[in-house]
Design a protein that fits this description.
With 422 residues, this protein is of the alpha/beta class. The chain has 11 helices and 20 strands. The protein is globular and about 65 Å long. The structure holds inosinic acid.
């Protein structure tokens, strides 16, 4: 019986889908604890490619219980569509549960997300436009609608009426936008509420039972540490806590139950959306990483910004998540580069800084240069068989991050990985 967490150690898109899929295989229960359909996990199983946005990746194993915890925000329309898509491909959803106290992303949240980005102009966050920020705003402002209030219909109707009293004021007076009607909001959501409602339950009790029965529970992180509302590069962050602490509040699990926390980091660094990125490469090496690593967002299709690995930021992720190990993904993407750089510290106003709790445009990265390798490493399954320079690169990262690299990703398929015995 173990309780393990996997979180993103960077700006999301670290290749967590593959690592979480591997971890899910060993667990009885797979839980998502935060975020919503702003996430996008790609899992490749043989010739099949699955793009999951809300449903935990454990769903691809029929015998697993999969849970969306109370910390998640749920878009019923998109969730229902995702569930239908999975069912069409033969995926069984009998063991899929949704927390009755998770908050609902409403149609006006999506509208407000886009309007606010437009209002900000050049200061925009670069959100996914899925209504995540406004949904969490309403949760904290104590005017949100929870999954348990989607039914019965009269309750939902009453909740929408109350919500629109406020939301229409904002739409009309702040954004000069069209107000929404109860009828249109209800009509947009009704069919999907029917689809998801059989899966709604008190997941806090469900997870407690699983624990008491000695089941292994795996908490699947979305986004990444640098997008965390507290520990990320604020304000260019998402509106939840995708870090390890988010498991306790977002899945109703006490910290004493957690055994391992694995942070997933790419062998380089990417970011979508706006905000500072000190090691960003706006040159042909950045292009090389984007093309070879297929660095385009799963949710929005946006090209990702690419750069060198940043150790001060990785150490920050180790610290705030209490990482017990690292999974280093996409090492194969670096094959063919003559030299690989790693940011080991920054220069700020003439001073060297090695420990940071965030990032800034003012940070001038200081690099250590490693020799690259040419070999295709996708077929390698043992650390000892990696090219010497690749081994040196990985060993230097674990030394600098003071955290063991337990898994190394060498290709997109779930089998293309090296497991190291620590
Ligand atoms: P939001 O979560 O849609 O509000 O977007 C806020 C910021 O988080 C933007 O920079 C997004 O690009 C980023 N973001 C949100 N979810 C993900 C993710 O799953 N991967 C990478 N970036 C994300």
């Amino acid at each position: 019986m173990t309780h393990n967490i996997v979180v993103g150690a960077q700006w999301g898109d670290e290749g967590k889908g593959k690592i979480t899929d591997m971890m899910a295989r060993e667990a009885d229960v797979v839980v998502r604890f935060g975020g919503g359909n702003n996430a996008g996990h790609t899992v490749i199983v043989g010739d099949e490619k699955y793009e999951l946005h809300q449903v935990p990746s454990g769903i691809l194993y029929p015998e697993k219980m999969c849970v969306l915890g109370n910390g998640v925000v749920i878009d019923p329309v998109e969730l229902a569509a995702e569930m239908e898509g999975l069912e069409k491909r033969g995926v069984d959803l009998d063991n899929f549960y949704i927390s009755n106290t998770a908050h609902v992303i409403m149609p006006y949240h999506k509208k407000l997300d886009r309007l606010e980005e437009k209002r900000k102009g050049s200061e925009k966050i670069g959100t996914t436009g899925k209504g995540i920020g406004p949904a969490y705003t309403d949760k904290v402002a104590r005017r949100g609608i929870r999954v348990c209030e989607l039914l019965p219909e009269e309750i939902f109707q009453e909740k929408i009426e109350q919500a629109l009293d406020y939301q229409n004021l904002v739409l009309e007076k702040v954004y000069q936008a069209e107000p929404m009607t109860v009828k249109e909001v209800k009509a947009e959501y009704q069919a999907s509420i029917d689809k998801i409602s059989d899966h709604v339950t008190d997941t806090s009790i469900l997870l407690d039972q699983a624990h008491r029965e000695g089941k292994s529970v795996f908490f699947e992180g979305a986004q990444g540490t640098l997008l965390d509302i507290d520990y990320g590069s604020y304000p260019f962050v998402t509106s939840s806590n995708p870090t390890a602490g988010g498991v306790c509040t977002g899945a109703a699990v006490g910290p004493t139950l957690i055994d391992r926390v694995i942070g997933v980091a790419k062998a380089y660094l990417t970011r979508v959306g706006e905000g500072p990125f000190p090691t960003e490469l706006q040159d042909e090496i950045g292009e090389f990483l984007r093309d070879k690593g297929h660095e385009y967002g799963v949710t929005t299709g946006r090209p990702r910004r690419c750069g060198w690995l940043d150790i001060p930021l990785l150490r920050h992720a180790v610290r705030v998540n209490g990482l017990t190990g690292l999974a280093l993904t996409k090492l194969d993407v670096l094959s063919g580069l003559e030299e690989i750089k790693v940011c080991t510290s920054y220069q700020v106003n003439g001073k060297k800084i090695a420990e940071v709790s965030g990032t800034s445009e003012e940070y001038q990265p200081q690099y250590e240069t490693f020799a690259g390798w040419d070999e295709d490493i996708t077929g390698i399954r043992k650390f000892a068989q990696l090219p010497e320079n690749a081994k040196k690169y990985v060993e230097s990262i674990e030394k600098m991050a003071e955290t063991p690299v337990e898994i190394i990703g060498v290709g997109p398929d779930r089998k293309e990985a090296i497991y190291r015995q620590q």
